[in-house]
Specification:
Blueprint (H helix, E strand, L loop, with lengths): L26 E5 L6 E5 L12 E5 L2 E2 L3 E6 L5 E11 L2 E7 L9 E5 L5 E11 L5 E7 L15 H4 L13 H10 L8 E3 L11 H9 L3 E7 L3 H4 L15 E5 L1 H12 L4 E4 L1 H13 L14 E5 L14 E5 L6 H10 L6 H14 L10 E4 L1
Parallel strand pairs: 1-17, 3-12, 3-14, 4-11, 14-16
Antiparallel strand pairs: 1-2, 5-6, 5-8, 6-7, 7-10, 8-9, 9-10, 12-13, 13-15, 16-17
């Protein structure tokens, strides 16, 4: 299947540059996959689409301040660094701009967002075929002070919120708001370098309302990285290489999903990252899409599952997600989920997106949400 088949036109002004004043004030486009019917609602209406016995599964990964700024120790040239994956203590793969100036052996001196110098340096160790650099961080001890020896312990003072490039920021005030709003209210274990954005719409009050309606609210963890946001550059989607991302599923969440499946209640996934964890484990358990899935159990590991049409889902029965970028793996995943007999899911999704454009929905990370039933 050609990557270009997942393209669509989006007016730039519909790319959300800021979150709504309140998290649950976003809009909600509801798609009935069996009929193609669309309903235009508010996110606060979500509980009305859930049923007693449903299990709502959310990704509770916490976003780290993964964007750093530094200078070339020799030339003074500026670098922007996005942490991607930790190999060992102070040993990371990163995206680095401008990459051509970051040859092996280059020393980078980092500074705080205020512009003040810091005791943190890094050496470029190697580069890979995708142009990413491997850095070894070095943290100098300050006289009379206790220095954290792990760069992760320094990120709150050195790092910035890793907003995607389509969100523009010009002032410190906006960036400070992002530290709170580019994070779900239920975020716990740190590790993501991009937000699991479908969860950004929830408030604690809304989650309590959902629980009070007899819906089980559960969590898993997938630390969002390149596997989620790397663009598809190949001409065909089959030629795209997914990057592995770390995930964890607790036994409590596994038990809740197993009980729901046995009782024929729905598993409602919040976000494509949640879908990828559940479907990875469903496939690993040997579940047959034509019959009842094999029970899940607690698991910690890595997934590089790439879901695109056609795909038979084993675990997920309904999906809440945001509006995704053209040609992205996320758009391909929701197109696979929308597949129904008689009409390809890609057509359903692109038709829904065209209607969302006409109705002036807000797109991407800080944008509105879509519910697939």
């Amino acid at each position: 299947m050609r990557t270009a088949e997942f393209d669509f036109e989006l007016p730039p002004e519909l790319i959300a540059q800021a979150p709504p004043p309140q998290r649950d004030q976003s809009r909600l486009l509801v798609l009935d996959r069996s009929t193609g019917q669309l309903d235009h609602r508010q996110f606060r209406d979500l509980p009305g689409y859930l049923r007693p016995g449903d299990v709502l599964v959310l990704n509770n990964s916490r976003v780290i301040p993964a964007r750093l700024r530094g200078t070339n120790a020799k030339t003074g040239g500026q670098f922007e660094v996005l942490l991607l994956e930790e190999n060992n203590l102070n040993d990371w793969w990163v995206m680095l701009r401008p990459g051509k100036r970051a040859r092996v052996g280059t020393r980078i001196q980092f500074r705080a967002p205020s512009g003040q110098p810091s005791p943190v340096d890094a050496i470029v160790l190697e580069s890979n075929s995708e142009g990413h650099r491997r850095l070894r961080f070095e943290i100098a001890s300050l006289p009379g002070a206790h220095a954290a020896s792990d760069i992760k312990m320094r990120l709150d003072e050195l790092g910035e919120v890793p907003l995607p490039p389509y969100i523009n920021r010009s002032g410190a005030g906006q960036m400070e708001q992002d530290r709170q709003r580019y994070q779900t209210v239920f975020a716990r274990p740190p590790g993501s370098v991009a937000a699991p954005t479908a969860g950004l719409h929830f408030t604690e009050a809304l989650l309590d309302q959902i629980r009070a309606a007899g819906v089980r609210v559960c969590f898993l963890t997938l630390h969002v990285g390149l596997g989620t946001f790397a663009p598809v550059k190949s001409e065909t989607i089959e030629g795209h290489l997914m990057h592995a991302e770390h995930f964890e599923l607790s036994q409590d969440t596994a038990d809740a999903i197993n009980a729901a499946k046995q009782a024929r209640h729905r598993v409602v996934a919040v976000g494509t990252t949640t879908v990828r964890v559940l479907e990875s484990l469903g496939a690993a358990a040997g579940s047959d899409p034509q019959s009842s899935p094999a029970p899940l159990s607690a698991h910690s590991g890595r997934t590089r599952i790439f879901i695109y049409p056609p795909y038979r889902f084993r675990i997920v029965d309904a999906l809440l997600t945001n509006f995704h970028l053209p040609r992205s793996t996320l758009l391909m995943l929701v197109s696979a989920f929308a597949d129904q007999r008689g009409r390809p899911g890609r057509e359903l999704v692109l038709a829904a997106y065209a209607e969302a454009v006409r109705q002036r929905y807000r797109f991407f990370s800080y944008g509105d949400a879509m519910l697939f039933l």
